[in-house]
Design brief:
4 helices; signaling receptor activity; single chain; alpha+beta; about 35% helix; plant defense; 4 strands; protein phosphatase inhibitor activity; Alpha-D-Glucose-1,6-Bisphosphate, Chain A, domain 4; pathogenesis-related protein
Amino acid sequence: MGVTCFTQEFTTSVAPSRMFKALILDSHNLIPKLVPQGIKSIEFVEGDGGVGSIKQTNFPEGGHFKHLKHRIDALDKANLVCKYTLIEGDVIFDRLEKGDVELKEEEIKQGKDKAMGLYKVVEEYLVANPDMYA
């Protein structure tokens, strides 16, 4: 199994610290409320959100995917950095188990576009609620 790394940056009018708190530190509470049609729940199955914790994202029934799990590898709140590894989930692992699979550029782009859509939803929420995560 190979390793693929992604980095994504975007510009926002919201303070980076607020975006970090909403998207990283409190995503398990906020994201399911903002996009319940896309994410049923997010919960820690190991740990409390620090390094080594495992976070499981559950998708609504009837969707293409059931769940995925991320392990938090590094968390630097002062510098707003979080590094994580996708360790389980039918999002990609079903394909990987069937053989030598290479992610196509279009699949990577689609994933980044979905992430950008989520960032925009959070940004809009924070603009409309300036006291949240301040």
